[in-house]
Amino acid sequence: MKDSNFLKENNARLLWHPMTSPIDSISQPPKIITEASGVSITDIDGHTVVDGVGGLWNVNLGYSCQPVKDAIAAQLDMLPYYSTFRGTSNDVAIELSYELGEFFASDGLSRAFFTSGGSDSVETSLRLARQYHKLRGESARTKFLSLKKGYHGTHFGGASVNGNANFRTAYEPLMPGCFHIPAPYTYRNPFNETDTEKLAQLCASALEDEIAFQGADTISAMIMEPILGAGGVIPPHPSFASMVCEICNRNGILLIMDEVITAYGRTGAWSGARLWGIQPDMMATAKAITNGYFPFGAVMMGEKMIEVFENNSDAKIGHGYTYSGHPVGAAAALACLAETKKLNVVENAAKRGTQLYNGCKALMEKYDIIGDVRGGYGLMTAIEMVSDRGTKKPIDSAMATTVQEVAYQNGAMVRVSGPNLILSPSLILTEDDANTLLSAINAGFAAL
Asked: How far is the CA of 95 from the CAs of 12, 26, 77, 98, 263, in angstroms?
């Protein structure tokens, strides 16, 4: 390992970082994280903080989950890799497919297609949705619907259904046939509606209007997050998902739940679909499936998909990844699934999520710079910062960065995305850890 001086001198000089510009990375070098334990991370200067980001929404079990590390090491000794393309498989991938079928049985999902991560899982879902309709003789069903403010990864398909211009405009033209409806975002929406239930109905009506305008027989699938994550932690009214599900079913449109963030306990329920009481046709998962210890993902399939693909001799899946069903990833996922159930992390996610949400609401009483606090469902919380509550004008980016930096110096890594300060810590967070996060964030706002 190179010494710290070498690492600092070369920080961001040769490595381009995701979601920022090379110039910004050079002028403001990223923090170099060198160690992690439990729910805390330590940088190259020895400064240790509670990780309020949970890696990137994915380290649900923290950084010291020994059963997962042991499973990875053991699998490397046994079978470090083999393909699951036509004609070969591996034992751990088979076992994982069974365990996931059991885990997602309540969601009506029992078949798995393995990927290398969240963007891959979304891409797989979109491709299989189109193939599903072609196999049924409805080849005109090629379009996709999604929510504004939604995030679905960075592949061309995922970017096309993304509802945030930051991930789209630099790469346009994207995939044609993708249309977006208003999100049930109570703080900002085109209807100026502040009642969450009425807003859910308005957004559902907008979905029906778009389907009627496009023609239901041209639409392949609707993809959405059960709670919008990267877009600013936007939970809809509990009625919204069931309305969307009913509309899609009535119009022959597949419903894809993007649960790359929310599956495996993040919301205080084992899945976002279960939280809202619906059964989607497909579910894209990744992130917490291996706790961030190995790149891996899975798309889960429901009965509609199973019926068409397993009863049609023409249903060859011309899609896959070199690392689909990677044995080391599958071993990590099996260990994660076992530990996730053993620790019953949904219970702690609900308790600590309520603590963080209430703590952030209390901060809103102290600081006018906080325009909105969203969350209340597990460990997903966002503070939207404004320069003026009356006009809801977003905060200046430099001020938002100040909040983030001061919070870090006071013991917490938090994530600022646009005007939003987002919290997505590990699901093993303790009450004291949550208090540390809140204290550090308070210091960040006090500094302004």
From this structure: 41, 45, 18, 5, 19
Query: Phi, psi (5° rounding) for residue 402?
Result: -60, -45
How far apart are alpha carbons 232 and 239 in whole angstroms? 20
Token output for 387: 């320069």
Neighbours of 199 (CB within 10 A): 22
Q: Does 31-64+344-446 carry CATH code 3.30.390.50? A: no
Report the alpha-carbon distance of residue 124 to residue 118 in Å, rounded: 10
- Write the CATH number of the domain with boundaries 67-343: 3.40.640.10
Model-wide pTM > 0.85: yes
Digitized pLDDT (tens) for each residue of the chain, 448 residues in all: 789 999 999 999 999 999 999 999 999 999 999 999 999 999 999 999 999 999 999 999 999 999 999 999 999 999 999 999 999 999 999 999 999 999 999 999 999 999 999 999 999 999 999 999 999 999 999 999 999 999 999 999 999 999 999 899 999 999 999 999 999 999 999 999 999 999 999 999 999 999 999 999 999 999 999 999 999 999 999 999 999 999 999 999 999 999 999 999 999 999 999 999 999 999 999 999 999 999 999 999 999 999 999 999 999 999 999 999 999 999 999 999 999 999 999 999 999 999 999 999 999 999 999 999 999 999 999 999 999 999 999 999 999 999 999 999 999 999 999 999 999 999 999 999 999 999 999 999 999 8
DSSP secondary structure code for residue 287 in this structure: G
Question: Quick one: which of 214, 198, 242, 234 has its CA closest to 145?
Answer: 214
At 152, which amino acid appears? H
Annotated domain spans of the chain: 31-64+344-446, 67-343
List CB contacts of 437: < 8 A, sequence separation 6 or more: 50, 52, 356, 412, 414, 423, 425
